[in-house]
UniProtKB/TrEMBL annotation:
Lineage of the species this protein comes from: Bacteria, Bacillati, Actinomycetota, Actinomycetes, Kitasatosporales
Domain (Transketolase-like pyrimidine-binding): residue spans on this chain: 2-168
SUPFAM superfamilies, per database record: Thiamin diphosphate-binding fold (THDP-binding) (SSF52518), TK C-terminal domain-like (SSF52922)
Gene3D superfamilies linked to this entry: 3.40.50.920, 3.40.50.970
PANTHER family xrefs: PYRUVATE DEHYDROGENASE E1 COMPONENT, TRANSKETOLASE-LIKE PYRIMIDINE-BINDING DOMAIN-CONTAINING PROTEIN
Identification of the protein by name: Transketolase
Lineage: superkingdom: Bacteria
Annotated CDD domains: TPP_PYR_DXS_TK_like (cd07033)
Length: 309
């Protein structure tokens, strides 16, 4: 199966052909995928070199002229390094762009910590007005990329990953999707965490919601789910643990509730390893997820049913 990032250049290249407002700004990363598109649209495929502050600044400049810029590089160089430009050039000037990242959290362990950004969504949460898409499958990534580019002049972050669920689900760029119903708690699985969550909760009496758009947070879906399943809520996110706990707490502010946030830990793992090893180390493997989810909700079996992972 191809990856989400494999879909990125073909989808955006087609949008370049279809919409004269669309422009692409790159910082070396991904330039080969746009070689043909650059021949067709030399004024709308721009490579600024390894200058990430300029990457975002150039995107904002294009937006000020009425263009719809799509800005791409690794998450650590797209959100963290040029954060001042994201904050001021886009946010303060109130212009929109589509930021499309790759290799967030620990998708490329061989790149080391310089190429990891588990805090990217949490960092964007300090700013107002961002939509954040976290697809869990290449088909979903294609749909959400099109949603993002078509979203008027909004500020949108699309978080692409090499991690993927086995099958795509219909996504609409807004709402959570109910994939399993239960009566002893709600588990929100974000993007590529869905398959692991479904395996971890097999046999547990919990509702599973699938989230591919996490900002704005679908408070209505969470409230509706808790009315039938109870107000113990577990969030399983592929980035910094606890990123969405405030949003979940706000959604349930008028009822007694408990929220547990699972995701990447704050401790830096100094061995490069593999993606699978990082998932295990952060407690995102099937066995540990079951223990933590089952001990918190799911009828309180504590995850004692034998599973692999």
């Amino acid at each position: 199966m191809d990856t989400m990032r494999d879909r990125f250049a073909p989808v955006i290249s087609r949008l370049l052909d279809e919409d004269p407002r669309v422009a692409v700004v790159l910082a070396e990363i991904g330039r080969d995928g746009f070689a043909d598109a650059q021949l067709r649209h030399p004024d709308r495929v721009i490579n600024v070199g390894i200058r990430e502050q300029l990457l975002v600044g150039a995107g904002a400049g294009l937006a000020l002229t009425g263009m719809r810029p799509v800005v791409h590089t690794f998450a650590s160089f797209l959100v963290e390094r040029p954060f001042e430009q994201v904050k001021l050039d886009l946010g303060h000037q109130d212009v929109g762009a589509v930021l499309v990242s790759a290799s967030a959290s620990f998708d490329w362990p061989a790149g080391g910590f310089t190429h990891m950004a588990p805090g990217d969504v949490a960092l964007l949460d300090t700013l107002d007005g961002w939509t954040v898409h976290v697809p869990g499958h290449p088909d979903e990534a294609e749909t959400l990329l099109r949603h993002a580019v078509a979203a008027g002049d909004d500020r949108v972050y699309v978080r692409l990953s090499v991690q993927s669920n086995a099958e795509a689900l219909p996504v609409d760029g807004a709402r959570f999707r109910t994939v399993r119903e239960g009566r002893s708690g709600v588990v929100v699985a974000v993007g590529p965490m869905l398959d692991a969550v479904l395996a971890a909760t097999d046999g547990l009496d919990v509702t599973v919601l699938y989230a591919t758009t996490v900002r704005p947070f679908d408070a209505d879906a969470l409230r509706a789910a808790t009315r039938a399943a109870g107000t113990d809520v577990v969030l399983v996110e592929p980035y910094l643990a606890g990123t969405s706990t405030t949003a979940a707490n706000d959604a349930l502010a008028d009822v007694p509730h408990r929220v547990l946030g699972l995701g990447a830990g704050r401790a830096e793992l100094r061995r490069y390893g593999t993606v699978a090893e990082h998932l295990t180390a952060h407690g995102l493997g099937t066995r540990t997820l079951r223990e933590r989810i089952g001990g918190f909700a799911g009828g309180g079996d504590g995850g004692r049913v034998a599973v692999r992972g």
